TrEMBL record:
The keyword RNA-binding applies. Pfam families: dsrm. Residues 21-74 form the DRBM domain. GO terms for molecular function: RNA binding. This is DRBM domain-containing protein. The lineage of its organism: Eukaryota, Fungi, Dikarya, Basidiomycota, Agaricomycotina. It comes from the Eukaryota. Keywords: RNA-binding.
Length: 84
């Protein structure tokens, strides 16, 4: 399963909606050669940035969303259930 298929952005969106938090994302930045691009993207939860990298902007955002979910799961487990 690729990172994009895991649905971290959907899960983060659900958590943010439940908590009343604002979720935004940036446009992303591409680096590396065109045949092997590396994208860096960020999501922001109430202005707090979380970054990630991937082979596409979607994969980079998924990685960033996973980082955000991991952060909030560690910070307050009741906000992000362990099975989520």
């Amino acid at each position: 399963m690729s990172t994009h298929e895991s649905g971290y952005m959907n899960k983060l969106n659900t958590v943010c909606n439940r908590q009343g938090w604002k979720l935004t994302k940036d446009e992303g930045v591409q680096s590396g050669p065109k045949h092997q691009p590396v994208w860096t993207g960020h999501v922001y939860v109430n202005g707090k940035p979380f970054g990630g990298q991937g082979r596409s902007i979607a994969a980079a955002r998924e990685a960033a969303a996973m980082a955000a979910l991991d952060y909030y799961r560690a910070y307050n487990p009741s906000v992000v259930p362990s099975d989520f």
